[in-house]
Design brief:
By secondary structure, this protein is an alpha/beta fold. 38% of the residues lie in helices and 19% in strands. The chain has helices at residues 3-13, 30-38, 49-58, 76-79, 92-104, 128-135, 161-179, 200-205, 215-218, and strands at 20-24, 43-46, 64-67, 85-89, 109-114, 146-152, 187-193, 210-213. An 8-stranded parallel sheet has the order 7-6-5-4-3-2-1-8. Strand 5, helix 6 and strand 6 form a beta-alpha-beta unit.
Amino acid sequence: MDIKANLEAVKKTFKNKECLLVAVSKTKPLDDLKTAYSAGIRDFGENKVQELQSKQHEMPNDVRWHMIGHLQSNKVKFIAPFVHLIHGVDSFKLLREINKQGKKIDRKLNVLLQIHIAEEETKFGFDREELDKMLSDPDFTDLSHIVIKGLMGMATFTENENQVRKEFRSLKALFEELKSLQLPSFAQLEEISMGMSGDYLIAQEEGSTMVRIGSAIFGGRS
C-alpha cells in the first residue's frame, strides 16, 4: 500500500483544487497517519472519540482533527479542547452540548450541521422540519461558543450517479438558501462537506468544499 502515491493519484483527479482533502484515518495504524502527514496531509478524520484522543496524543501539534462520525453528547467533553471541526452535528441537543463544553473551557468550537439528504434511513442528520424548528428557537441565538462553518451531508450508497448528484445538489441549494437568511453571527456558512472515496468527484462538481477520503488513500478496512 503506497499511501503517498495514492494521495498524489487522488489529488490529480480533483475537479476543484481548492477543495480540502480530509484523510479519513479511522481504524488505521499510526504509521499510516505519519506517512500521510509526511506527504503533506494535515487534516485527519476519525469517527470514534477514543481513537481520536489516543491518536491526537501521538501526532504532531499542527494536525487538524475532524470528528466525522456520529457523536454522542456525553463524549463531547473529551474532544472539545483540541478538535478542529465536528462534522456530524445532527440535533439541537448535541449542538447545545458542544456549546456548553466550549463555554467550560472558553473555546469556540467549529461545527458543521449534518443534513439528511440520502434516501437511506440509515444516515443521520437534520431533516428540513427539524432544521427550521432549531433556527427559529429563541435558544438558538444564545449559542456563544460554537461557530457553524457550514453543512455536511452523505449521499445514498448507490451506483445511480443521478441520484447521488441530485442529493448533493439539494445540499448545495439548502446551503445557498441559509446563506441568504438573517442568521446569528456565529453562523459563518463557508463549507459544504460532501463526497467520499466513491463519489467525491461528483460532489466537487456540485460545489463541495471539503471531501472525506479514506479507502482511496489508505486502502480498504478489514
